[in-house]
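[Meeting: bench + compute handoff]

Bench side (C.D.) handed over the final construct sequence. Compute side (W.E.) agreed to return the predicted structure before the next meeting so the bench team could plan truncations. Sequence as handed over:
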Amino acid sequence: MLPENRKRRLLETRYSNTQGRIIPMHHAFKIIKFGPATRMGMIFMPVVFLLAVWMSFGYIGLFWEEVFKFWMPKLFPEGKIGHTLVGIIGQSVNMPYPELNAEMPATSHNWINLAVCVLLFVLSLLLPAWMMPGIYLARASLFIQASASVYFLLSPDYFPYTLTSYVVDMLMMGMYLLFMIPLVLALVFYVFDFPIWWKALVTFACIGFFIVGLPMQYLLHAYIIQTTSLLFLPLLYFLFGILLDVLMFINFYAIGMSRGRDQTSDLGRYA
């Protein structure tokens, strides 16, 4: 039998990198032990946060109204704030929204936009390979924007969304997103043996970020669309709407999972 200090030294040598630092075991290879703290985090924490979010829908709406009152005079001097009752998860929420109108794009604008998209796509073929991730994103944006021009050229007098209905729908989806955050974190974050205070902090920070950020995000959308036209609504919706919100959620999840731990796993690795 090797002495414990010798055994520990061998393990440290085996699982060290070239700089002598311990290589942590990846979460995907770690056997999860569901201790009492982990079970409580998986069961009770989601319930607490779900109830807190559900009971706060009305107060969130009031806060969003104050955000609109602050920004509307600066962005839309002639704009007004409207209210509509929407059903969200078993209750009626008095949803505030900016009462704004946006114009349909002129035919000449559609042709100019389409020509610019084609030109930029051709130029993207000349970019170096190391810029490929950005090239893919740019090409996706160009495809969406060109498709919008084609749609308005084929149907210049009809579009299924108004600026007001778009903002209301996106704010409703934001409410659902707030409610889903604790459920998703319970499945992909609470199962790991982080301290309960860390799980609660990450959840609170994520929910708080979206409560503050969602009204400003879609108010910015409204400003861009009203300043230009409905031609830019599809691009904002597909790339800078819910997709952007999901990416921000993943960022908070990554922050939560990146917290270092110093306990050893059941395999003898430093996890």
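W.E. noted at the follow-up: Strands lie at 80-88, 91-99. C.D. will use this when planning the next construct.
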